[in-house]
Each structure stands twice: as structure tokens, then as C-alpha cells.
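Now read this:
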Amino acid sequence: MLGAFEGEELIGLCGVSELENRTVLLTQMYVKSRCQGAGVGMALINAARHTAAEKHQARVLQLDVYLHNLAAKHRYEKAGFQVTGQTADELIMALSLS
């Protein structure tokens, strides 16, 4: 897990877990509502990108986002993620790290 802090208060977090084929999965992205829009989510994505590339030598950072969560999809696209697939209720998005 990666955390974002304001002083000693945890204001955001996300998980990273290694998959196959040099791919890392970004999971459980959460930012406290009062901190949304302040760059916390982007800082967490950047930390996940760095962790994936440096610690796991990954080539791809992947995530799933619910189909109805258009705001999150847009933010991930702003960070460089592209839709690579879809399940019944989620989009699969990926960011190339190479």
C-alpha cells in the first residue's frame, strides 16, 4: 500500500500488486473527499508508477474502473491510462511504463 499524508493524517491510499508479464495492478485508489481535486490522486498514481517501474521493473501499470465512474475514468485518462478491455461492469485501463 502507498499512502498520502497531510501531516500525520492519512488522506489517500492505493495498493500495488505484481501480476504476470511485468505488469503491476493499481488497486483501491482512495482520496478523502475534502482532499479531492488537490492533486492527491495524481501524486498517488505517480508513486504507483514509480514503484511499478523501480521496484517491480514493470512495463505496464494496470487498473480497473467501474463503467459508471466516468469521473475516475477521465482522471485516469489525464494521467495517461488507456482503455484496453472491458468486463461486464468494469473498464480495464493500462499505462505503458516503457
